[in-house]
Design goal:
Blueprint: E1 16-19, E2 22-24, E3 29-31, E4 34-39, E5 55-56, E6 62-64, E7 69-77, E8 80-88, E9 91-101, E10 108-109, E11 114-118, E12 130-136, E13 139-141, H1 144-147, H2 158-170
Antiparallel strand pairs: 1-4, 2-3, 4-5, 4-12, 6-11, 7-8, 7-10, 8-9, 9-11, 9-12, 12-13
């Protein structure tokens, strides 16, 4: 089971990918992940330089573990807090631009468990967002196919985590937690 790395907005809106993986002529390099935010209800037809009129990320929105795994990295870097989770089979997910982290290295996490809070804005003109990356056998790959069928949860809680543990054991997938 996989969970979208950003929960549903409190008013019910689902998160979207606002800037996708691929070569960016504007940056002159590969944008090696997906930026996730919420589209505003009223946009006003803004262009990319003023996209803050079209997108938002409420302060304190949790970043959620994409899948069950073990935390490999949990540290502050120049662009905010970073968490990396090893999901096994050479698959790692990475969460950038967080204000703080709620996991530590070596900790086991479940899909949908909060790993930190989004809303770190390292450069004044950038809009706060979650930058989500997937690495397969050490190589950064497009995360969109991995989150395409992921469940968007309303809000994370210990109740969701308890439900997921129960579901994992019920399905005989307890080996994921070893």
């Amino acid at each position: 089971m996989s969970v979208y790395p950003v929960p549903r907005h409190p008013d019910g809106r689902a998160p979207i990918i606002s800037d996708s993986y691929g070569y960016s002529p504007k940056r002159g390099r590969l944008h090696a992940g997906s930026d996730m935010m919420y589209r505003r209800k009223v946009c006003g037809g803004a262009s990319l330089p003023t996209r803050s009129k079209c997108y938002e990320m409420p302060r304190g929105t949790p970043a959620l573990a994409f899948g069950a795994g073990v935390v490999l990295r949990s540290e502050r870097i120049g662009t905010g807090d970073l968490v990396t989770i090893d999901h096994g089979g050479g698959l790692h997910s990475e969460y950038f631009h967080m204000r703080n982290r709620s996991v530590r290295v070596g900790q086991r996490v479940l899909a949908g468990e909060p790993v930190g809070t989004i809303s770190y804005n390292p450069i004044g003109y950038q809009l706060s967002h979650l930058h989500f990356q997937i690495r397969k056998n050490g190589t950064r790959v497009d995360p969109a196919p991995y989150v395409a069928g992921a469940q968007v949860v309303d809000k994370p809680s210990s109740m969701i985590a308890k439900f997921m543990v129960t579901a994992l054991f019920a399905w005989g997938a307890y080996h994921l937690l070893d």
